[in-house]
Amino acid sequence: MKEKLRLCIVGVLLCLVGVVASHVCYGQTKVVVDVNTLWYLGDENELHREKYFAYHNTGNDVEAQEFKSTYDVVEGRRFWGPFSHAKGQTQEVGEYPNPKSNTDNTVRAVTRYISTEHPYNAYVDGLDPVSAGEWAAEYYKNWVGDSDRPMYFEPMNEPFVHASEFYDGGWNIAENVRIKKGMSQMYGEIGKSIHETPELANMKVIGYSAAWPSMELDGFGHWGENMKSFMDIAGEHMDALSTHLYDGINVEGQNTRRSGSNSEAILDLIESYSFAKWGEVKPHAISEYGGIEDGYGDDYSDIASVQTVKSINQILFNLLNRDDRIEVSIPFITGKATWHITEENNYQPYGSVLWKPTNIGEPTVEGWEYTPRVTFYEIWKDVSGKRVDVTSDNFDIQTVAFLDENVLYVGLNNLSDGSEEVNLNFLAGLPTTAEVRHRSIKIYADKAHEYKDEVLAELPENISMIGGQTSMLVIKLGEAVDQFEHTITTRRYYNNRVVEGIAANTPIFYQFKDVKLGEGRAQLNFGIGRKHDRSKKPEILINGIKVDVPDNWKGYDQADREDFFGLIEVPFSCDLLVAGQNIVSLSFPDGGGQVSSVVLQTTLDNASLASDEISLSPEVMNLGVGDEVELKLNLGSSSSEEVAWSSSNEAVASVTGDGMVTTLGEGRSIISARTASGLIAYSSVYVTAEVLSSQSSLDDAGWVLYPNPTEGEDVTVRFTQEVRIDLVEVLDMTGQLLYVQEVDRVLKTINVPLSQLSGSSTLLFVRVRTDNGVLRTKVFSK
């Protein structure tokens, strides 16, 4: 198992001061809840239960009605649609009934569930995708009523793993790829036709229903052949991208866990490619997720049934914490599945059911009772409200917190296989508590689970959690909290690079534009696919400043996977971010594998964000030590207000009460101007020693940069003698830092990868810092 080192981030729990330092420590997990701070993920703050609490069924019998009412659960997914209907009418896949004449142009109502179909009812080799799309739109417009018109249409369930069933002659990679492309074209035409039908404006098309998202296999060839190819062909016409996430083997693949860092890396890669391709992040539709239990025999057992609840909870915490990018999610908990209760199956219930017969093993069902899967809905019963701030200093302890007027729900989940002691800190205290309940579920591999819902005498300071345990604290407060002292927002910044190969000691650069500055916390999320003997700890520079990379990540060590594929989260200080463009580099000590995605994430106090009403000029300054520059503050309509000036790093730059900046040492600092009414403007200051050392044996004749001008390709700096190079930087005309490479080696030549700087200005400055001084030259990029 991976070493359980925890990052204890000093100040990360205080949303107003940001991350100011870090160190590694062992000990108790600390979870901090702040009911006085409202937390937005993008534009989302309220918990929309219908996005998360469904079941994989659309039944409406007595038991189903009582279940949905008791647990506030919606219908999830149904196997039926236009192609199954057409096959029943024409007896041929790909042959469709004639359109109906209908003059009703009103927008059709929909019912919230996903409709999907088995591939053998929808697809055949040689199918005309345009006709399929037109028929799907015709069917949902004119052939069904509101209850049979779904909000979401997912044309096929897990189609790509069935691709080999649509050609003859045994397994053939080229044929497999061809069929997948044909299926993708069908999806694209269905989405296009439904979107072009005004009467179906309430419907959304999702796809492709990825059963086996092992993106990293074959050097991410699996990603390229499957999800990436689907996005390239059909993604433009999808309202959400659907994926199935399972712990265990789903149809085929390795016996592995998706929960934790692996599922995080999968979803981040899809989001990053979505941004790179369309400039926006299309949401996820997780149309199935859970766990696939193995080793419990063919007959039903409660011990086997409950295993999935652990996986469902672990994946759910992941989804809840990316709420602004989730369209719909459905845990794989089915209805009664009476089709499975047959003599052939020894009259046993299907393993994934919510209800089982009271007389298992007999041909005639006498009655129904819940399976242990109902505990998933028990522990989340009534959870609702507005998201409030909650943090954990242990990647393996997942957290959520929601406040519904006078009821606070605090959810905890232990991703680790081992026990964890969790210390709870309610920042600034809570109003008087009227009642505290602790719901918990402990699941064991070889004995009955334990579900408890108990009233506690007082608010607990600590909770002991076994591996895989989920806990929900339900805290009734003596009074409602309707005023919040702070509001924070999590923003994610993407770039145009995905699945980049790793070469030893060769930095990979990522540019993040339009990053908002403010006070709070920040982290860099990078996904990697590598062999297990390769490093998972690159050197990371954020705008040229090295940050600590943790030894830990969410979930297990993935040792039973062929490769490690997971997301590693790196907390860092918000002070490292600058106005304008931010540059991040990753450099590994060894080669092999790929960086799948890199995402910059901030959670900032909204009151600390730069205002559109005032501004500082210049926004970015590149200065030498000892320089003085007077910042110009445009106050707009706030010209009569008093202004407070400050520097984030007084050792680098100081600022007077009238905006005069004096540089004192190398480094960077953020100068802020705040009006009495709370409006803020920022300016970033870079300070370097620009003058050649008086002892320098290197002058302008001792080095050359070529080619110059460049056609956008890389350039090389060549010296006439060996020189110890400390740092290579590229700046634009405003002094904005575009590229930083920490070298610290004796070399005669150094490559500068200008080709990585997409969209850069035509005039750039290359700066090489050596032990003999700082060299600076212009390079023209056409």
UniProtKB/TrEMBL annotation:
<dbReference type="InterPro" id="IPR003343">
    <property type="entry name" value="Big_2"/>
</dbReference>
<dbReference type="Pfam" id="PF02368">
    <property type="entry name" value="Big_2"/>
</dbReference>
<dbReference type="InterPro" id="IPR040527">
    <property type="entry name" value="Beta-sand_Porphyrn"/>
</dbReference>
<dbReference type="Pfam" id="PF18040">
    <property type="entry name" value="BPA_C"/>
</dbReference>
<protein>
    <submittedName>
        <fullName>Por secretion system C-terminal sorting domain-containing protein</fullName>
    </submittedName>
</protein>
<dbReference type="InterPro" id="IPR026444">
    <property type="entry name" value="Secre_tail"/>
</dbReference>
<dbReference type="InterPro" id="IPR008964">
    <property type="entry name" value="Invasin/intimin_cell_adhesion"/>
</dbReference>
<dbReference type="InterPro" id="IPR013780">
    <property type="entry name" value="Glyco_hydro_b"/>
</dbReference>
<feature type="domain" description="BIG2">
    <location>
        <begin position="610"/>
        <end position="684"/>
    </location>
</feature>
<dbReference type="Pfam" id="PF18206">
    <property type="entry name" value="Porphyrn_cat_1"/>
</dbReference>
<dbReference type="InterPro" id="IPR041224">
    <property type="entry name" value="BPA_C"/>
</dbReference>
<dbReference type="InterPro" id="IPR017853">
    <property type="entry name" value="GH"/>
</dbReference>
